Fold:
Amino acid sequence: MAAAAAAAAVGGPQPPQAEMPAPGLALDKAATAAHLKAALSRPDNRAGAEELQALLERVLSAERPLAAAADGEEAAAAGGGGGPGAAEEEALEWCKCLLAGGGGYDEFCAAVRAYDPAALCGLVWTANFVAYRCRTCGISPCMSLCAECFHQGDHTGHDFNMFRSQAGGACDCGDSNVMRESGYTNQRKKTTENSFVGRDHKAYRNCINNCMLPLMFCKRHQIKSSSNIPCVPKDLLMMSEFVLPRFIFCLIQYLREGYNEPAADVPSEKDLNKVLQLLEPQISFLEDLTKMGGAMRSVLTQVLTNQQSYKDLTSGLGENAYARKSHEKYLIALKSSGLTYPEDKLVYGIQEPSAGTSTLAVQGFAGATGTLGQLDSSDEEDQDGSQGLGKRKRVKLSSNTKDQSIMDVLKHKSFLEELLFWTIKYEFPQKMVTFLLNMLPDQEYKVAFTKTFVQHYAFIMKTLKKSHESDTMSNRIVHISVQLFSNEELARQVTEECQLLDIMVTVLLYMMESCLIKSELQDEENSLHVVVNCGEALLKNNTYWPLVSDFINILSHQSVAKRFLEDHGLLVTWMNFVSFFQGMNLNKRELNEHVEFESQTYYAAFAAELEACAQPMWGLLSHCKVRETQEYTRNVVRYCLEALQDWFDAINFVDEPAPNQVTFHLPLHRYYAMFLSKAVKCQELDLDSVLPDQEMLMKLMIHPLQIQASLAEIHSNMWVRNGLQIKGQAMTYVQSHFCNSMIDPDIYLLQVCASRLDPDYFISSVFERFKVVDLLTMASQHQNTVLDAEHERSMLEGALTFLVILLSLRLHLGMSDDEILRAEMVAQLCMNDRTHSSLIHHIPENPNPKSGIIPGSYSFESVLSAVADFKAPVFEPGGSMQQGMYTPKAEVWDHEFDPVMVILRTVYRRDVQSAMDRYTAFLKQSGKFPGNPWPPYKKRTPLHPSYKGLMRLLHCKTLHIVLFTLLYKILMDHQNLSEHVLCMVLYLIELGLENSAEEESDEEASVGGPERCHDSWFPGSNLVSNMRHFINYVRVRVPETAPEVKRDSPASTSSDSLGSLQNSGTAQVFSLVAERRKKFQEIINRNSSEANQVVRPKTSNKWSAPGSAPQLTTAILEIKESILSLLIKLHHKLSGKQNSYYPPWLDDIEILIQPDIPKYSHGDGITAVERILLKAALQSRMNKRIIEEICRKVTPPVPPKKITAAEKKTLDKEERRQKARERQQKLLAEFASRQKSFMETAMDVDSPESDIPMEITTAEPQVSEAVYDCVICGQSGPSSEDRPTGLVVLLQASSVLGQCRDNIEPKKLPITEEEQIYPWDTCAAVHDVRLSLLQRYFKDSSCLLAVSIGWEGGVYVQTCGHTLHIDCHKSYMESLRNDQVLQGFSVDKGEFTCPLCRQFANSVLPCYPGSNVENNLWQRPSNKSIQDLIKEVEELQGRPGAFPVSISSETNLSKEMESVMKDIKNTTQKKYRDYSKTPGSPDNDFLFMYSVARTNLELELIHRGGNLCSGGASTAGKRSCLNQLFHVLALHMRLYSIDSEYNPWRKLTQLLEEMNSQLGNEEQQPEVPILYHDVTSLLLIQILMMPQPLRKDHFTCIVKVLFTLLYTQGLVALSVKCNEDDRSAWKHTGALKKNTCDAEKSYEVLLSFVIRELSKGKLYHEEGTQECATISPIAWSPESTEKYLQDFCLHFLRITSLLQHHLFGEDLPSCQEEEEFSVLSSCLGLLPTFYQTEHPFISASCLDWPVPAFDIISQWCFEINSFTERHAEQGKALLIQESRWKLPHLLQLPENYNTIFQYYHRKTCSVCTKVPKDPAVCLVCGTFVCLKGLCCKQQSYCECVLHSQNCGAGTGIFLLINASVIIIIRGHRFCLWGSVYLDAHGEEDRDLRRGKPLYICKERYKVLEQQWISHTFDHINKRWGPHYNGL
Structure:
């Protein structure tokens, strides 16, 4: 078909359908393309154009239906036999050929790229891509950079972070609209972020401005932006201009063809995905074109936006039936989407809505969106649809553009528009999104695309609502929109030209109208208000998020926000939108039964208010900062008040809120409050000019006040029947992300109302809302009809705390931003020490990113350093790690601790207590106050003048009556009054004194004045004067049972016999509720402007529900107190002494001049009372005089309170509780001290060995036996054969030893491709090679006795030191098996925790029964000669039955020993214990057993630091179980007797005559020569073959014999390392001294003899150049030779000394490093006792030859010579042994984590060659692995688990690259260890969520390494879980 098309194109006859061969076809394509290009290049190119069109018509024909292509078999028929993809591939090949104009396509691409003028990066990425954001360089908060651009730019010292993209994004490098081209230079910040701390903000800004240089764009885009790219040659892209329109049209036809409207309730994702899959090559082709650079993008832009070519190709009016059908499908798709195409309405019979219905009077919205799924919808239905939602006020939108057409009409005029339409219809396929975004660097395209996007905005919303994958779609929408709307210039342009704001607001309104329900707030039946239903998917799933996010984004641009704030119609619409959220998620208090179903919709409600209402509000507020913007605020406030008035009308609100209802959502109130605050703070507006009348203010305050009362109710457990979710709401309301958009505006609005309303009315309202009015009576008993007695106390505390917050808080009343930040920070730090990120999280963020106070900004860091000290990360003894913390400075506790701010900001009530505890601790520590202090009183910042009226609350009679009543009740010990109530009362009095209006005159102004109204409690409203006013009698209503009723009332209540001051004669009575009602009526019906004088009616102070009036009677109480007298009596009461208060000014008059005395700033209630009295005296001389008078009178003692039986019962209960608490505290303290002492003894990791709890009693040395305590049954006794005792042990396989290296250079983690780690220099590899070499040339059984294994996979045994009976252990394990509790270990695998110390263990090691006497006998030295001892040793080794316990007797002990041996074998894998050539050989077991001993000794040496200089106190501090382990191993070793003929002991101690005959048998492999044997292995074999317990002299004998062999090996190795000259020199000097008396103890003589003997063989011959290179170039002086020999032997001496220490309990001597050899030699008995060490020490003096030295050496050398005759190379290699291994270390890590991350997070796995989802790297060997990767799974083991077995014998340490966390695998368990990389604030960044730069914490890494080396992962890390081989 393609060939036919080609033939037709060049004008020839059409050939038959047979296909041409492929090569010819390709040639033909190129020729055709070249021909067409030439034709089109001519001046008259019409013919060429027609030819090309014809060709494209054939090649790109979309007539094969995609639907058929998607179905298997029909596809072949439809596609002309080439399969579904063949024709499409062919078409693509044609397109490439045509674009290249006959040339090569790759060359064409390169040529186009050369003309790329684009200075933008524009790289588009999808979700999970790692990108960077630099706040220093960004203009827009959405700015992001790809890693390459970021690293090529200079961001040193900037505030940047790395992040993992959630929705996708694009790189902004080079875009000066989004990021600055220049920023700070390197000189700007050489220190950390805190470098400007302590300097003012101006200096900081100056510094930045002075060092601005063009550094921010990366190197590539700096060059581009400054260079001139040459013009593109005309003919280069000529073909593209012709081909691409047709290609894109073809793509659109495919999209039309493939789309089928989904049937009802059947998702069509499958079909859509099939179509998209088929179209992937075409879209990828377009994507590749965009990557060719600016020149090609420019052509694509022309094609996509050319209206004429779109019209020509898509009109559907031509002859082509297929094109017509395609156009019809397009129109059907439009219609089914609820859209119309205006021009085609007549042709295709689609009805257009009439002009009358298209104007938008919001009634049609709900129905329109409600019927989206139907094919047809009409306006009538729409209107009907909205009726069910309840009538509500209709909104007229401002301009005529806001009509139905926004929602319904779409007209496509270009390819771009239709392409976007289908992109939306197909729900934003990723490939299409990427293509559309890749085009954005082209500016012309960007504008066109943005306009198109706006045009389709309503359609996007409709599709999003219907989508089943709304999350994915939301991400894709934001991926696009954030690129478009972050650019201010572009946003402004589309706002002006395309009505962007109108569209966005209308679309949001439509969206929310689809989920409205009738509001049940206030008047449930008649309410006309509708609210969003929070249970709808739209809100629950945050489906509205992308649209709101776009709206917030465009409001961040000043020019756009300005337009919004000026447009009255838009503001009306927006307030209408906000009112949908007003009162949503209403809570009704359950009074009878617990709610059945706890709704979790509340979080959706909070999120909706924050995102859809609050964040746009903050965006608008950020542009109302200056005086010139006053008009904007007036507009918002005006329409906000109108909306509020409508809301009050709609819910039928008058003055009382409905009981037992609360909604936390009042966005209209909060809009109003925040704009008021901004108006006063920044715009200098007069507050009264934007306030409504008093009636409206009263209404405004009701609902926020209701929320505050409900908070107290919720915390008092009054809403407990509503379930946990109501507590969740109360907590979310004050939580850091919500508080400044919720509780703060509410409190501020209440402050504004309080400052303007009558204070008596406000105070009455507060106590009535909190339901504690009935409590405020002087009577000792009362009845509360609205509150249970148990809730009264906490509700009263709540009311008083609320008043204190209301009067103290200055967040919006005059504090600057920096002061607010400081107060917030201090409050958080006082609750707890915080990490930097926790502080950022807890401090309410300013939701407006342009505020300048972003966490991490200059002001944040400077305030932090001013108020807090940094505590670096610390390590606790248990090994757990702390993060870097900030803690308050001492002066902050002293002067800035503000309990009010703490109470406001606590989510959990316990945080308030935590802050007080910390404050108490500070006062005790600093010696300021020893007792339990009260919250300190903090002076407040001055009020802004506009809010001065707030202080009238403190000077109103109602509050004074409440304070007087409460003080009296507290003094009289009435019920339900706590210390907290008193504290708040005193706080309010002090606030009143601090804020009194003016200084009083000395004389009372009212003395000669007219008589006040006679029932008034107080003469005036000033607290200062009211404090001294005495109140004589009070009339109260009390229950008839009250004690007051029984007292005689005074003869005449009307006469005032005392006449003190200006008291009226009648008893006082007061009703809060009546007072408030009266005030309200007055304000509503007032004639005058202010109702100042109010006569209080004499009604009862009781308000009760009708029908439930209790039996009350009136009683008159004699009071005769003033506030001052009550305070003084309170002082007496608190101090517990009579007349305790003495006015301080009587002694020191200075106190009245300088009242701010530090002694009064911290203290308890007594201090508070003293402070208040001093302030009262300062404010008025009259008060001062009265205080003195009161103090002069001797106060009669307060009468003891009569206690009723019920009260006594309560008191008894309280007393019992108190005593129980004290007992509990005492017990706990005792337990803690016991635990501490136990930890010090039993668990101390640095304790000396003598602290082992297995105490060996030494009272009677004659008969004493080792006694053990069983930690299960508690019995003490010896271990016996019938009832053995065992040590709790942990057996684990270890490869730590194998990681020792001989190189001092540390191994580094590879961070480039060139760096690699080669494992062949490790100890394990070297020993492996040695064993293989021996096995190749020598007899297998002999080889297995010549070395040790266990370097990899060796079994390490450790114990906590506790013992238990083995039968007790078995029953303990049984109980663990039956325990259903989830444990962190597997009981079936024998794992358990020690019953006493809870240390992890998995076996029990039996203790060998034996007495100390026996040990003492065995340790006594004998005077036998060495020859006698040698014979004894040989005899004992050959005597099989010498072991005291016979195996055949099958005792319990022997069974347990066999059992533990099985456990030891099963601990490690088979490959680590099976080295024999013949599988199952007993030699294997023999080798394995003595190697276990070797492994444990070697590891203990490493734990001690590699030497024994520190002596007895083990630095590793492990409890040793080597003694018991030796008994078990020896028992089993004795089962394998070595044939005496092959016993190495004979070769060491006897001269064998038949040397020649031994080596004569050529066919049989020889035994390993004795000089090739590992001496430490021989030591262990010899000792374990001896009967136990071993005699000390036998041990010394073995050591002496073996030392002679070791020394000889050292001499041989030395001789091999020397060169020929050195050897002949040694040979000569030694020969001269051979006949001296101590020739056998002279290394020179012995060395010369060794050289002479070995010269007989071929060992020294054939030294080629290669060997010379390995020989060390040391000049061998006597000193260096001596040092070499000592170093060679030292390791053996250390191991032997450790063994001696464990077997015989002898202490290890401590010494200097240089003395170690001599000290250990004498300790082991190698040195003669008379040996003096003054002259230089000679190691050869330790030699004690059992037979003549020269003879035995000659014998040993003969074996070597025999071997080197045939294998000189190997013979030499086996002689040179490395004896000095360095300590094992983990890999060295780079300083900066980014280095690791950048290399590994995109690295491909070597096994599966994919980039792992969770890459990890082994910190032991550097292997890169896939964590949890199924791709690399082998035999059901995932790669990390498999690697941990191969690399660490079951222990793996992995760094997770994407999380910066280290994971430990130990056997079948794993745990998260933590991170060794911390940020600048000493914090981990798990999962790299914050993305800040991370730096290595060397201390942490050291701890990790220490735990690895000491095998303590199991003990120190507590959170283990099974990994099921899935890591």
